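re: the backbone from monday

yeah here it is again, tokenized this time
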């Protein structure tokens, strides 16, 4: 059986935990993961940001780490991957403006491959028009976009720690959901949670 591979789409100021945790979990269960960013090549870095919930009306944002990309966006062949993850942070607001990003998302959505988006990553799915009629959760501020794109909103848990599965689509509201999100994504990818 060939090794399973997942593609992750990121950009500068992707949410730190939402790129770091899935990347490390996939390594742990021996699933290949190529992390790419439009306009950047393997070996270059994206800056991450750390979002936290500290009692304000919205999350706070602090500098995160630099994440080193291990693949080049322009060289990606979507046929080589069984799944796609779109993390949140601020990157999705501009990644969704890139036509090739949207085409990649449509490939995974239309092909019935594992498709995961967490937090603001759902903005890329709404822009690609792949959630019409699907049940989706995300960071609560993304709800209007989900509904305008024809998605059926699933209310996140008070702790933002739940994930929702609708067929091959896995969504979650924020980084506190990483455990639930990755468990569900691995199930959809048909990979045992432990090797």
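seq for it, each position gets an aa:
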């Amino acid at each position: 059986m060939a090794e399973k591979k997942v593609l992750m789409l990121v950009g500068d100021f992707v949410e730190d935990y939402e790129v770091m945790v899935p990347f490390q979990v996939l390594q742990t269960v021996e699933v290949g993961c190529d992390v790419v960013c439009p306009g950047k090549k393997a070996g270059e870095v994206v800056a991450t940001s750390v979002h936290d919930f500290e009692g304000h009306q919205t999350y706070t944002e602090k500098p995160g780490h630099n994440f080193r990309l291990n693949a080049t966006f322009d060289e990606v062949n979507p046929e080589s991957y069984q799944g796609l993850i779109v993390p949140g942070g601020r990157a999705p607001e501009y990644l969704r403006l890139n036509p090739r990003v949207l085409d990649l998302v449509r490939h995974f959505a239309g092909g019935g491959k594992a498709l995961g988006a967490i937090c603001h990553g759902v903005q890329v799915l709404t822009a690609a028009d792949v959630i019409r009629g699907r049940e989706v959760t995300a960071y609560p501020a993304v709800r209007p976009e989900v509904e305008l794109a024809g998605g059926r909103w699933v209310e996140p848990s008070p702790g933002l720690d739940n994930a929702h599965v609708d067929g091959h689509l896995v969504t979650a509201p924020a980084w506190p959901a990483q455990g639930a999100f990755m468990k569900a994504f691995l199930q959809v990818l048909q990979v045992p949670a432990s090797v």
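Residues 5-189 form a domain with the Rossmann fold fold (CATH 3.40.50.880). The longest strand covers residues 60-68.
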